[in-house]
Amino acid sequence: MKCDQTQPLIAPxxxxxxxxxxxxxxxxxxxxxxxxxxxxxxxVALRQRIRTEVPYFAAAPALAERVxxxxxxxxxxxxxxxxxKRERWPRLSVGxxxxxxxxxxxxxxxxxxxxxxxxxxxAVLDWQASQNVVxxxxxxxxxxxxxxxxVDVASSDxxxxxxxxxxxxxxxxxxHDLAAEGFPLLGGRLDTLGGRKVxxxxxxxxxxxxxxxxxxxxxxxxxxxxxxxxxxAHRRAAGWDWLAVSDASPDVLNGFVSQLxxxxxxx
Amino acid sequence: xxxxxxxxxxxxxxxxxxYNLARWLARDGHDAEDIVQDACIRALKYVDSxxxxxxxxxxxxxxxxxxxxxxxxxxxxxxxxxxxxxLEAAVDHNAIDPEQAVxxxxxxxAIADAVAELPLAFREVLILREMxxxxxxxxARIADIPIGTVMSRLARARALLQGSPRLRAxxxxxxxxxx
Lengths: 267, 179
Ligand SMILES: [Zn+2]
Known about the structure:
heterodimer; A: alpha+beta; about 45% helix; B: mainly alpha; Rna Polymerase Sigma Factor, Chain: A; 2 domains; disordered C terminus
């Protein structure tokens, strides 16, 4: 009888979306109609299975740390123009919800540009970075990967990257592609660490990016380190200092640095 | 309150929900982290327009946008024609007792895989409803679709799960083919 009216209401009933009047209507019908009751039971059973068996993926603690590092490295509000100062929730009409479009486009490009301008124009990113080479390295890594200015010279060819860096520094860093070992060279970048211009080699590892800061002077620091959700590996050999930063695991990063060192010292 | 403080107070508590949504949309943990980080930058920029009561749905809206932008850059085919065909297994399982947990795990994996294989438009609505417990109205806002469309997509998602060969195969094995 009332099945036609009831069936469209079963899912909203299960989802708690009905007002009292319609809820009672559905409940009454379910008591007296086996097919509708079965449909209801199926839906409840499915929900139960989803809630108990489909995993709710937990974010790694390192993600929260990284997000905080990103937030700390982003300039405070007011330093950049906002497209819309006070956006409201859209109402449910189609026209109004277009308001949300600005979140979809433009926002991130503008923000990355802001981060870069801030980096270029400001010597001190935060108090920690100014005192600590590791924090500076991590901050540079965050800014480079987020700002999409990952490399100044993009090349997997060490014979391109090395001269490019040498021309801009007072030293000529060892550069080796480790693609065969799973770490392809993506390019090079110039950075400033501890008040000194350094060569940064950028490598890929699966979906991770690894920054390696290479210079002849020594950094005084432990061989591996974890900061704000990023891993840092440090090695000194053959007169060079390697400082690698990535969100890849410490094992991967340490193994990578070892291979880098043996490639550089093999000659 | 500064934007940074507002971000910490209003957005950070929902980082887990953001990651879970991104994880189910992208079906990859590392990609999900990238998407969440991108979403956080956007959220920080606009956090001054945010009211506390709507923080979670607001942030999830941004996560969803960040996902679609990420998709356009990295996996345009996913949006263009997501027909729900199988992708690589999306779920990691940590069984406590392997011997006893085998069948149980097979069942769990079946439904989790079936969810992961839902076409994107249905999957996102289902995740928001079943895992985040959001109302039709909130889902409509987040996905930028009318409430009627939320209901029809949810119904379709559930029908696809109930009809999924993965689940049926399990049902036959555990209950001798009876429903
Ligand atoms: Zn009926």
